[in-house]
Amino acid sequence: MLTGRALVTAAGVVVALIPLALGSNYYLFLATLVGIYAIVAIGLNLLVGYLGQVSLGHAGFFAFGAYTAAMVGKALDGIDGLKTTGLHLWGGLVLGVVVAAIVGAAVAYPALRVKGPYLAMVTIAFGIIVFSVLMEWTAFTGGPLGITAIPRLRLGGQPLRGTSFYILVLAILAPVMVFQHNWIVSPRGRGFVAVRQSEVAAAAVGISVHRTKVLGFMLSAALAGLGGGLFAFHQAYISPDSFEFLQSVFFVLVVIFGGKATRLGPVVGAACLTFLPELLHRFAHFRLIVYGGLLVAVMYSLPEGVVGTAEAWFTRRRVRRPSAPLAVDLDGAARVGELAPARAGSPGVELLRIDQLRMQFGGLVAVDALDLVVRRASIHALIGPNGAGKTTVVNIVAGVYRPTAGRIALEGEVVTGWPAHRMARAGVSRTFQNLQLFGQMTVLENVMCGFPLTHRAGLVACATRTPALRAAEQTVRGQALVLLREVGLTEQADRVATALPYGQQRVLEIARALASRPSLLLLDEPAAGLNAHEIDVIDDLIQRIRDWGVTVLLIEHHMDLVMRISDVVTVLDYGVKIAEGAPELVQRDDRVIEAYLGRVRSVACSP
Amino acid sequence: MVFFLQLVISGAAVGSIYGLVAVGYSITYTTVKVLNFSQGQFVMLGAMIGLTFHVWWSWPLLPAIAASILVLVALTLLVERVSVRPFLSAESMSWVLSTLAIGIIAENVAQLVWGREALPFPAAIRDQPIRWRGMGIYPQELLIIGASCALMAALDLFYGRTVAGKALRATAHDFDVASLMGIDVKAMVSVSFAISSALAAVGGILVAPITLAESTMGNILGLKAFAVAIIGGLDSPRGIFVCAVAYGVFEALCAGYIYPGIRDTLGFLLVILVLLFRPSGIFGRAQIEKV
Prior knowledge:
With 607 residues, chain A is α/β, with parallel strands linked by helices. Chain A contains 29 helices and twelve strands. Chain A folds into two domains: 218 residues, no CATH class; 256 residues, P-loop containing nucleotide triphosphate hydrolases (Rossmann fold, 3-Layer(aba) Sandwich). Chain B starts with a helix and ends in a 14-residue tail after the last helix. The longest helix of chain B is centred in the first third of the chain and has 31 residues. In chain B, helix 2 runs parallel beside helix 4, helix 5 runs antiparallel to helix 8 and helix 9 packs across helix 10. The chains are: A alpha/beta (607), B mainly alpha (291).
């Protein structure tokens, strides 16, 4: 693997040097553009490929970088001291990045709540607004004519142009690529992918989906701004034409063509789509027809993009080796202790208290006047016929819904209305009735996402991959493996989550929920759809979890299971609590029998 | 007041065109979750083909429209086969790229066949504005509004009352279940693309007398139609049409009272504002996440 990476790096360096050897100014010009577009595309890839947020407005961020750099550079160029050092130009470049990042955060705000085509529209609108302002605000932006005679970047008094500028772009592209790699393999990068694959599950493991998206937009916009600044100094002349909608489309094409969510995709895509039109010059008037036709043809034959398809091909051919860390033998007895809740407390004490909870969806009252106390280190079952409001209670406690009325307290602290990620951080973990695994991640990665490091890791540490972060990652990896061993999934650690049998997927979700060492674990129908053997596994697992000191609130329809393992059973019907107590008492309760089986008509009963 | 009314009418006319095209986006999106990003270019092709039959070959208008619709539907079915169907299975975004590519190709073809210049397209009814209480209203604008409303009503009836319309709705609701019920879902996909391109053809021919027929006319038109489809709510054709007309009027008022250059800035700012408060569009059903 390491040799493979070294090989790719060496090949990359050689390819990057080719334009220098050709001695053609024109190819050098294009190669510089490739580098600039690649920087923008890497940012877009983080957003589109990894975080799963579409942007068809990146030309707007690109424009902010370009215009900021150009305007600052031009405005300050008259000052004597600066003219020789060129500091103001570098300052303009940096300022462009900052401005673009701020604008990125501003765009993220309306983009937070919208999805799919609606999100695409927000970004398209942003791009068009930037373009029309550039066109119309002539006094400020120069209007359709743009900004001419932008000074060249200078280093040591020498203007950077041609070869030296190309080398500068490479010198910036290289660390950007390193950053991209660091980020993707970091806990935060995993958080990006988690948000892409399931926002509810990401929030359930403590990731703030909002903050992650804002961060994604900011990073992506900053890189687009960096590319824009370089573009301005490269061209020495910018006008709105370079920042219209089609430019945004081009950036997306680069990412998809190269292969989204691949590390080399943006660079390969930028190179292909920059040089392709040049190769098509001979087609003259038919140029765009051939271009469009080739795009469709490539998508047809390489559906995952150039790099994505190539990677899939190599992965299929490579013989799978067991990953090294799996072989590490862990001292189980010592480590199981680490699975106990992060915040200890004595068993039997009140952990969760719900007072007069009410949840209304439009006219439907799903939960009404519910009081519930869950005691520490107990298994508390919540049962009731379909539609009784059980999952609604779980969703409220997990922070997915904000209750219409009522109060929820966790360990004495009022937590009513806290969002899901905050509840998760406060010690409430959950599984889902409809599985919400991070489907394209491996089993091990799924569990690793459950650890608080995913949302706690420092941003700078993630970007630079510090030794401390690597050490923390190794610890988390070790703990995740202990967890997997405890739930019996060690053999599957390297498999893609969705490739597991259904029963094991349910177990995996429980393992992921345990990773944060929660005080309270909400299990929403963990045995649904399982066979008898798989139910036994779950049965045993839930009891062991309780023995670790984790409190379990269990929703389940398998009455055998519920009655066997629960300490307390609460029965809901139509959103109202109708019975509560030890399993054997609840089983004999008339109202419970009525709720499940219906009332026996008294007439029929009489002899 | 006169100026205001004039702006409203011409805005409503342009808005109706946005509406026709926007409903086209909605139809394919609800059926197969695919947005045909070459929709704008199909509007342009509709105008160009209509122009060829009507002006170059002197066909009467109605047969020319019918011919234009037929040609465009045929083209769309081909495009759907080549650039949409292969990419449906994967959850990839390849269809974004492939439909954009089709748009690029269509524009280039149009430049080769009809040239780069804007071509005049004769109005369907007389060219002179009707004078009424100091207003000058172009009959073409009234025709656009009337024809669009009629088309929308017809589409509404088709969806609500006919078996084919119901089959389309069933497919839109649940692809797999519709398929199990014996509905030929692949055919439904084709039908949805055919309807959306027919709307594009009519839209192109109706708008061309006002904007002139030009190879680039579809670009911004396609984007604005997409914008109104979004603020209306992709799953609500009626809502889309209402929003489209309102958007057209808003644009006309901005251009008329403030200044023309600010039209797109304010228009798209409005789009963002609407989405800020209604993330699924004004008439769209909010998606409740089932957990």
